[in-house]
Amino acid sequence: MKNKIASALVLISLLSACSEKFTDLSPISQRNVNDFYRDGNDMTGAINAVYKALHQNGAYNQSYWVMGEMRSDNTDGGADQTGLGANMNIIDNFGENAATAEIINSSYLDTYVGIGRANLVLSRIDAVSMDEALKNRIKGEALFLRSLFYYNLAVNFGRVPLVLSEISTEEGKTYPQVAAADIYKQLITDLIKAEGLLTIKYTGTNVGRATKGAAATLLAKIYLTTGEKTLAIPVLRRIISTYGYVLTPNYANIWGLSNKNNAESIFEVQFKGGGTNTGNSFTNEFSALLIQTTGGYKNRPTPEMQAAYEAGDKRFAVSMNPLNGPLNAGRFILKYGTTSSFPINEADYNFIVLRYADVLLMLAEALGETTESYALINQVRTRAGLADISSATSGTFAEKLLKERRVELAFENHRWPDLLRFGKAKEIMALQGKTARLLFLIPQRELDINSTYTQNPQ
Fold this sequence. Notes:
- This protein has a domain at 1-175 and 423-458: Serine Threonine Protein Phosphatase 5, Tetratricopeptide repeat.
- It is built from 21 helices and eight strands.
- It has helices at 6-9, 11-14, 33-36, 40-53, 63-70, 83-92, 102-124, 132-157, 180-197, 212-225, 229-242, 282-286, 288-291, 303-308, 314-319, 356-367, 371-383, 397-408, 415-421, 425-430, 444-449; strands at residues 75-76, 160-161, 177-178, 265-269, 300-301, 320-321, 332-333, 351-355.
- The longest helix is centred in the N-terminal third of the chain and has 26 residues, at 132-157.
- The protein is globular and about 60 Å long.
């Protein structure tokens, strides 16, 4: 096999399907792909396998929060300087090696696993005889999920191969690196289509699937990333006026096992603990109480993160335990739980990828400094128990908005993309004594396989 990208190298792992129940994401045994995808049940299993790819260590279970939070000024790798802790601290300090940075390399590889599974769905579903409404919904889900995977690739790695169809193990095609700008153009097309195919809301076992709101929110985020603010505005207004999301009255009620998929949540990665092989590991990695070894936890909030909260901010005690705080274990994240009746690395907490507060703050960003923009920001601040801000408040509009996004969305994988989008990454990281690289290094194995690939600046 001579395929030149990670998705081809792992094709065999893409051909497994999942059970019909969306809440049971454990993969079933591998089957002959040509015989398997024949009806609606088979395609439901196939799309469930795409959701399952979000669970991988290279995705939301580990790599994405290392790259989205730990790379930034929000968190660091903790006090542990051995093993995994050492690897995380190297990434935190921009010192990783393209050949040995397994956390980064697995992100590249595992993200293409998700893309490959989505491509399999999109390549085969039109030939399947099934309910047309279900077919359209699954297409929309696959387009959204593939876009989410590619968004993470483009933000983190820049130029990557753009693969939009199923790859066979016999195929020898070379896929060139494509500029992030062109990746985003494709995602815009796909997300517009996905929003049209998806439904607004699900019930029962389908809760947690991608919705119109999820596709629209990611679309708006990509418009902002590409600088097309005027195009983001109608999308964000549509989400606010049409799709039924609200801010939960109490910030604490976004989090916790009883608040999964709440009225503010737009898209969550669904985890189910209890020894089902569908639980998360980040709860344990974030929490000093579960690790039970002083300093053994990862993704530790920085002193700068603690200082970013204003006095009286209700989000603080919900989001993190401070140094010398009530739990007496140093700074660590609270949003994703501190206790679990489940086995280690099998916790039940979901990871919220997109939520309504982000939509309000993105609309403020798209509008620029206006009275309406401050009203949007102040909706978020009012819930946090803070006074309104305005043009008279010190600082530039961008500085005030970026600060609000930091504390509202802390530890949710937004900080590093925000610093990049606002053009602040190098400046902010310099304040921590670090020389920032704006892109992660392409895994060395990809460069070894394809001599035409170029490495990102080191």
